[in-house]
Structure formats: C-alpha cells, structure tokens
UniProtKB/TrEMBL annotation:
This is Uncharacterized protein. The lineage of its organism: Eukaryota, Viridiplantae, Streptophyta, Embryophyta, Tracheophyta. It comes from Arabis alpina. InterPro entries: Class_I_gatase-like, Peptidase_C26, PuuD-like. Transmembrane segments: none annotated. One of its GO terms (molecular function) is hydrolase activity, acting on carbon-nitrogen (but not peptide) bonds, in linear amides. CDD domains: GATase1_2 (cd01745). It comes from the Eukaryota.
C-alpha cells in the first residue's frame, strides 16, 4: 500500500470524504463506529475521512458537512424494504425465520437509511465521487432506482454461501469478473477471483445506469459501476462492490489477498482529489462572474438614476461609448443567462484547460479596457479642442 507523505499532506488542504457510522448498543448506550480498514485506506490514499454520526435528525443537517468531495458508504443493517419494494414477496413465516438467522442485520435503522439515501442522491445529482461497499452498494442501487433481494436464500434459491457466521473473516466464494471493467483491470485482468461475503441481501434489479463488473456463481451481482461516471482523473467515480476488498487479507496478516484490493480506494480518492480541484476552480470562476455582474448592475443603476434627466448630445455619446443604456443592460443580462449553459459545458473541461481559457480572457479584458480608455480620451480631447475654438 502506498502511504501518503506526511510533509506533503500537511502543506495542503485534503479532500473530505464523508462516511456514515453504524450504531451499536454497548452497556445500555449507543456507540457509533466505522471499520478502521476503511479509515486507514482513505487516509493512506490522501484524503480526510469525515464521519457522519448516526444521530437522529442529522439527515436534515448534511449541508453543514460541505464541502463534500467524496462519499464512502459501507456496513450496516438491512435497508428498509419500503424504499425499493411496494410489499414483501416473502411470507410472515419466512420473514420470521430470516430474522432468527440474521438477527444482527434485520433491525431496520430508518435514520441511517435516510442519511445515506440523501447522500447517495446528492452524489447522483452533483456528480460527487461515490464508493459503496456491501450495504453501501445496495444503497446506491436503490437510490438510482434499482431493487434488492430481501433474502438471497429465500428469493434466489442459491447454493452459494454468502455469509458464514462461524468463519466470518476467512470465508470466500468465487466471483466471475467481467472483462473490460475497472474491476477486471484492477485485478490484473483475472477472469475469476475469490471474494469475502458478509450479506444475506443483494442486488435484484440493477438500476439502468449501472453495468455489472462481477457475478457470484449463483448469478448475484458482486460489483457494478456507471461507465459514464468512471474517470478518476477527471473526478468521476460511481461504483458499488458487494464484497469487502478492505477485509480481503491473508490469515493473520495485513497483506491483501490480491494487490488490486486497495485499488478501489486509491482510484476513489484520486477522483475525490480531482473533484476538489474542480470545485475550487469553479468557485474562483463564480467569484469572477459575480464581480462582472456587480459592474454591470452599477452601470444599470447609474443609467436608471439619469433616466428622467435630459441629457446633452455629449452625454448621450459618452454613454453609448461606454456601451451602457438601460436597454443594453437588460440585453447584457440575458446574454449572461445564455452563457450559463455554456459554463455548464465548461465544467467538463480539465483544470489545466480552464486555466488557459481564464488567462486568455483576462488578457482580452485588459486589451478591451485599454482600447475603451483610448477612445474616451480621444473623445474628450476633441471636445476640448471644439470648445477652445468657439471661445477663440
């Protein structure tokens, strides 16, 4: 694993990756926690993990956690079925049996559901990098319009063992990797890998925007991604993994089963870093746009104040030379609105390309400003000469 250099990390502001905690009961009090492997990998890859506590009402305060440069969702209880299914296809007897077999997972936590669904939808809407592990992949699929098996054994009739409480960390099953997907590349283009498995639910109907990356022997999807939103170097990452690559380690060791296990986190953080840079550049451009608007409003206010004043021919010419009339100001504002659509397209450009464009337009602004000053000075000189001639 590549560990980020301490000196480099301390010299800059790192991207913020939100991770929602899981709640457990300890000594009659609730305790929030996040698996340390997740936190270690996020830090070692060069980002700051920001833990969102599972606290009542926190879903309405998520704006206070901004800026958000990435979201990682991982372990937790079963997702409330009402979020993806109108009614259960399982009988009451079957549901009772499932609760007995998976008691630690079947206690629905609606507050955690609300927090994580809000974050997932925010990432889908604003193109924020997202990595879902296990439950997190299920949240992503549901947020995008997919559905889940409420219990794989009951609904899929599988012979593949997806959870082994007696051999929790050592249990593995086969997973067929789909060619030409990120997962295939990360794992050295292996057609099949052995993955861990800690779940009794999984993807039933995959949301239409996603493409499968791996399948279990029973056909259950073990990983998926959005190919349109996968370009880590451009700040784009949208992926769900049903297995836990962070826990795929050799027995009694911190060494990974495969070198590709940590790559999901590395590529995810790479996308978060780029997304942060794009946000910063976007903020700078927004500030410049606001300054331009303030200047245009200042001219409009000047004209409005003089609207009822009889102007001399000289004053009218002066205003025309400045390119400012009430009518032109309105036209200018409409043009600014049209340019907003062009600016959205520019968001897809790289930071380097945007910097080059910004430098060019600054140079053009200076040239235009100098030309206007020369024209105004020439106009004033001609006016003075004309007045002098009349006085003479």
């Amino acid at each position: 694993m590549v560990v980020a250099d301490d000196h480099n990390l301390s010299s800059k502001i790192l991207p913020r990756v939100l991770i929602v905690s899981r709640r457990t009961l300890r000594k009659n009090k609730f305790v929030d926690f996040v698996g340390e492997y997740h936190l270690d990998l996020i830090v070692s890859c060069g980002a700051v993990p920001v833990i969102v506590p599972r606290v009542n009402g926190i879903h309405s305060m998520l704006q206070s956690f901004e800026p958000i440069h990435g979201v990682l969702l991982c372990e937790g209880e079963d997702i409330d079925p009402s979020l993806y299914a109108a009614e259960s296809e399982l009988s009451t007897e079957e549901m009772e049996e499932i609760k007995r077999l998976h008691a630690s997972d079947t206690a629905i936590d609606r507050e955690k559901d609300s927090i994580e669904m809000t974050l997932a939808r925010l990432c889908l809407e604003k193109n924020i990098p997202f990595l879902g592990i296990c439950r997190g992949s299920q949240i992503l699929n549901v947020a995008a319009g997919g559905t889940l098996y409420q219990d794989i054994d009951k609904e899929l009739g599988t012979t593949t063992k997806h959870i082994d409480y007696d051999n929790y960390d050592e249990h593995r099953h086969e997973a067929r990797v789909v060619e030409e997907t990120p997962l295939h590349k990360w794992f050295g283009e292996m057609d099949e890998i052995m993955v861990n498995s800690y779940h009794h639910q999984g993807v039933k109907r995959l949301a239409t925007r996603f493409v499968p990356m791996a399948y279990a022997p029973d056909g259950l999807i073990e990983g998926f991604y959005d190919p349109i939103r996968y370009e880590p170097e451009e700040g784009e990452f949208l992926m769900g993994l049903q297995f836990h690559p962070e826990r795929m380690r050799l027995s009694g060791s911190d060494e990974f089963d495969y070198p590709g296990c940590a790559t999901a986190y590395q590529e995810f953080v790479k996308a978060a870093i780029t997304f942060q840079k794009k946000q910063l550049n976007g903020t700078k451009m927004e500030m410049m746009k606001k300054k331009t608007l303030v200047k245009s409003f200042s001219v409009a206010e000047l004209l409005e104040a003089q609207a009822n004043t009889v102007l001399s021919k000289q004053q009218e010419n002066r205003l025309k030379q400045m390119g400012a009339t009430v009518r032109n100001s309105c036209v200018y504002m409409k043009r600014m609105k049209r340019k907003e659509e062009q600016e959205r397209a520019m968001d897809k450009l790289s930071a380097e390309r945007l910097t080059d464009l910004l430098s060019f337009h600054r140079m053009m602004a200076r040239l235009c400003s100098d030309a206007i000053k020369r024209k105004l000075l020439d106009s004033e000189d001609r006016t003075i000469e004309s007045s002098s001639s009349l006085n003479y």
